[in-house]
Design goal:
Helix content is 0%, strand content 43%. It is mostly beta strands. The strands form two sheets. The chain has a five-stranded antiparallel sheet, with no helix packed on it. A two-stranded antiparallel ribbon has the order 2-3.
Length: 79
């Protein structure tokens, strides 16, 4: 059994993008490599999941304008 690494951010927490977040193909309505949220854009964590193979938390963040992006911890910072 793997001990899942605890997330540093929690559901409902305000965060902002620490880097430009671009479409990696997971947003079919946007062009590939289109910027979904610019660095500094604030958002709210709406779900926290876990990538089991890599043992890392994955965050769904709703940014201004209603775009929801899956993010890793190094792509976010606390507001």
């Amino acid at each position: 059994m793997i001990d899942l690494r605890e997330p540093i951010y929690q559901w409902g927490q305000r965060v902002c993008a620490s880097v430009d977040l671009v479409n990696d193909g997971s947003h079919p309505g946007a062009e590939l490599e289109a910027v979904l949220a610019r660095a500094g854009t604030e958002g709210e964590i709406v779900n926290v999941g876990h990538h089991v193979d890599a043992n890392i938390p994955v965050y769904l963040v709703e940014f201004a304008g209603g775009v929801v992006v899956g993010c890793l911890e190094d792509e976010l910072r606390q507001v």
